[in-house]
Design a protein that fits this description.
This protein is mostly helical and about 270 residues long. About 75% of the residues lie in helices and about 0% in strands. Helix 7 packs antiparallel against helix 8 and helix 9 runs antiparallel to helix 12.
Length: about 270
């Protein structure tokens, strides 16, 4: 029986939606299980939970070790975001508007951390900071996280700069503004979505980074993923599921904020 083009299109669309839904379910189920385990009454990570309780959340928020690790993660992520944007903004301008030899090579160098296996970067950074005596410090955490977060920030800002019509900035200069004033009052507001996206990417990269953090950690300074990793090797307590849920929750919140900002920008446009 031959199908009409409309019927064929409906079947293809149905197949596409079904496949996409199954893939999404496959990816989301482990996250859902982790969230449910954080509310389970068993002292072990058992699914399905025999009952429901909030006591593991109480243990997490009352334990100074977990709270210190969470605050350390937040501080490192915020500092990483700030420095990634501060360094990525002039770098993106130089790579887009610069006319110097080796620009493409420099772009490849800045994006290299996205290609090189993270464990290689971690070993190299650890060896450097070990020699300098900075391992286990906030400085080591931030610098190592900026190395892996900076490419995402640069690429986001570069994409916004390439979409920006530089003639608008030139028009502001013709009207009497200095080049610096035109950049701050015309260009920066126009590329703000790329800057915000780069900042959010940098935050997320740092927030749940574990390989570099394990190498940089010390007994007195650990991020939340490192604390989860060390605890997981000793005990399968549901407090780990609580920490995972908080990591997931903040990541989702950041993505929701990014989507809201993008929608607001599109509405204004």
């Amino acid at each position: 029986m031959l199908l009409t083009p409309n019927a064929m299109s409906r079947r293809l669309r149905l197949g596409l939606y079904t496949t996409t839904g199954l893939i999404g379910l496959f990816l989301l189920l482990p996250i859902v299980f982790i969230v449910l385990l954080s509310f389970g009454s068993s002292q072990w990570l058992v699914f399905p939970p025999p009952g429901w309780t909030l006591k593991w959340y109480g243990q997490f928020f009352s334990n100074p070790d977990w709270m210190n690790a969470a605050m350390a993660s937040l501080k490192v992520a915020v500092l990483t975001t700030f420095f990634a944007v501060a360094l990525g903004l002039p770098t993106a301008f130089a790579l887009v508007r610069g006319r110097f030899p080796g620009r493409e090579l420099l772009y490849g160098l800045f994006t290299l951390p996205m290609i090189v296996p993270l464990v290689i970067i971690a070993v190299a950074v650890y060896a450097l900071f070990l020699k300098l005596g900075y391992t286990g410090t906030m400085f080591a955490f931030v610098v190592s996280h900026v190395i892996v977060a900076l490419p995402f920030t640069i690429i986001s800002i570069i994409n916004s700069l390439k979409l920006f019509d530089q003639s608008i900035e030139d028009a502001a200069v013709i009207c009497g503004a200095s080049r610096l004033q035109a950049v701050f009052k015309v260009t920066f507001p126009a590329i703000r979505p790329g800057m915000v996206a780069g900042a959010l990417f940098a935050f997320l990269v740092s927030w749940d980074e574990v390989v570099l953090s394990v190498m940089m950690a010390s007994p007195t300074l650990q991020t939340l993923p490192v604390k989860m990793w060390t605890t997981l090797r000793q005990d399968l307590t549901p407090v780990i599921a609580v920490a995972s849920t908080l990591l997931i929750g903040l990541s989702v919140l950041v993505m929701v904020i990014a989507a809201a900002l993008r929608r607001r920008t599109e509405t204004r446009a």
